[in-house]
Amino acid sequence: MSTVQLTYDADRHGIAVKEPGHKSVAIGCTYHGAAIDDLSAGDLVATGVAGCMLFSMGVQARQDELDIKGTVVDVAFTMTDKPFPHMDNITLIFHMPRNYTPSEREKLEKAAGRCPIKASFRPETSIIVKYNYVKDQSSQGWHGLER
Q1: First-to-last C-alpha distance (Å) of the chain
Q2: Structure pTM?
């Protein structure tokens, strides 16, 4: 079984270590006003959703013999205090390396939508996804993901 251990260093900073393999990442807290260079817990949560969606697409791509290597996802999020402190918006922009057919796009986007991590959020958190395909850099393709 894989585990992660987080050690608090001080001043809203810590080191997370994943075992086995001893991979580590520095984590800091920006929510309460601190300026940090490390990834924040919010960065990791939002990136986790992006990774899950991208890897779900990868399963579909392998099944359909599509090449999605080189896909890049821009990840952003916002926090709010109303009605309680939480992430209120996660925005993901998938920059796809090829201009797939409409059928291939639909399969890939549906696969991304089946990400189980995405389904773990409360309704108060909006997850907005945009897919930009190589020959389609217009503003088309915005999808608000429904839970």
Answers
A1: 29
A2: 0.83
* Sign of torsion over alpha carbons 32, 46, 41, 24: negative
Annotate the chain with three-state secondary structure.
CCEEEEEECCCCEEEEEEECCCEEEEEECCCCCCCCCCEEHHHHHHHHHHHHHHHHHHHHHHHCCCCCCCCEEEEEEEEECCCCCEEEEEEEEEECCCCCCHHHHHHHHHHHHCCCCHHHCCCCCEEEEEEEECCECCCCCEEECCC
pLDDT digits (tens, 9 = 90+) for 71-113: 999 999 999 988 888 899 999 999 999 999 999 999 999 999 9
